[in-house]
Amino acid sequence: MKKFVALLLAMALCLSVVSVFAESTNPADIPDTITSADNTYVVAFVTDVGQLKDKSFNEGTWNGAKTYANDNGLSYKYYQPANGEQATDDDRYDAMKAAAEAGAKVIVAAGFMQGTALEKAAKEFPEVKFVFIDGWSLGLDNVIGVAFKEEQCGYLAGYAAVMDGYEKLGFAGGGGGTNPACMRYGYGYIQGANDAAAKLGKQVEIRFTWQYGASFSPSAELQTLISGWYETGTEVVFSCGGSIFSSITAAASANDAAVIGVDVDQSYESDTVITSALKGITEGTYQMLAKAFDGTWEGGQVSLGAAEDAVGLPEDTWSLESYTVEDYKALRQAIVNGEVVVDDQAAANDPNAKGPWSNVTVLYE
């Protein structure tokens, strides 16, 4: 019952963040697969590695795409590149080509690994608009890159964990240390933990790893690693890599420990989750699709953060005890106001090499 109630709350949160959603819209009520009367599909989604229903990045993006299409009476379809975790640029291009040839007016592609294939497809199909989630500007009028300020919500999560009393933290990242979004999450997480520890006048520890997360998939090796952390004192681990979440929550469950979720509110998925570092993937996707159809489209790059209400922590499923929603809101507003500035240079600075941190010891594995 607890998970069911949390699921309803999480869904409500997703719907309350941005006003462009129809009042009656609930992504869970919209089918993932439909049959188009003329066998064309106007809105297309090409998945990142991992499964469509990953309870994280793919699913959050897809919810925005299918919700916009449903709200506006448009046909829609998702495409998963061939070869799963071993998908190549050719596999991703083939999925985009299939979408364009099936009548897509807009193709949403999730994940930084889509870049090479997306550029090729966008040049071949200039009449199709491409929304590149976690991407960048390709200098093409029919492409908009959508980035998020993950360092800000990573900061908020690290700060909240320490303020709630956790002193031995962990971070397990996806992409093998080459994914800019995951790097920003992790780098912000260290900054937030450091600032909270400084405020409290204490020292904290963060164990930090990219091991076994390169494919964003669960693995026995990752579960063993994180179980070892918990067994030797780590209290909470930030799971930052899509489906690796299931390995980390399994380790937490076995050790009566805690997890911080990522991208979407993952508290409904596991009782071990104390909070989640949210970014508005669903909302950002919805908004970019709206631009594609309402005449306000401009190719280029957008970066969405606290000022755009696109990053934060979930409030409706709040379970932290020593750190309040009111305290969180005040910190988030300080970021919006520029009173707290979170360094975003994760891609250029290894988190461990960036130290020494004043109140955090980073054990980089």
Describe the protein's topology.
Blueprint: H1 2-16, E1 43-46, H2 57-71, E2 76-79, H3 89-101, E3 106-110, H4 115-124, E4 129-133, E5 143-148, H5 150-163, E6 168-173, H6 180-200, E7 204-209, H7 220-231, E8 236-240, H8 245-254, E9 258-263, E10 273-279, H9 281-294, E11 300-304, E12 311-312, H10 325-337, E13 360-364
Parallel strand pairs: 1-2, 1-3, 3-4, 4-5, 5-11, 6-7, 6-8, 7-13, 8-9, 9-10
Antiparallel strand pairs: 10-12
Helix pairs in contact: 2-9, 3-4, 5-6, 7-8
Structural class, by secondary structure, is alpha/beta
Helix content: 25-40%
Tell me the distance between the termini: 38 Å
Q: How many domain units?
A: 2
N-to-C SSE string, H for helix and E for strand? HEHEHEHEEHEHEHEHEEHEEHE
Label the CATH architecture of the largest domain: 3-Layer(aba) Sandwich
Please state the overall shape, judged from the principal axes of the Cα atoms: globular
CATH superfamily of the largest domain: Response regulator
CATH class of the largest domain: Alpha Beta
Q: How many helices in DSSP terms?
A: 10
Unreliable stretches, pLDDT < 50, 5 or more residues?
1-24
Instruction: Tell me the major beta sheet.
Output: 7 strands, mixed
Mean pLDDT: 91
Which strands sit side by side, in order, in the main sheet? 12-10-9-8-6-7-13
Total E-strand runs: 13
CATH topology of the largest domain: Rossmann fold
Radius of gyration: 20 Å
**Which percent range describes the beta-strand content?**
15-25%
Quick structural gist:
The protein is an alpha/beta fold and 365 residues long. The chain has helices spanning 2-16, 57-71, 89-101, 115-124, 150-163, 180-200, 220-231, 245-254, 281-294, 325-337, and strands at residues 43-46, 76-79, 106-110, 129-133, 143-148, 168-173, 204-209, 236-240, 258-263, 273-279, 300-304, 311-312, 360-364.
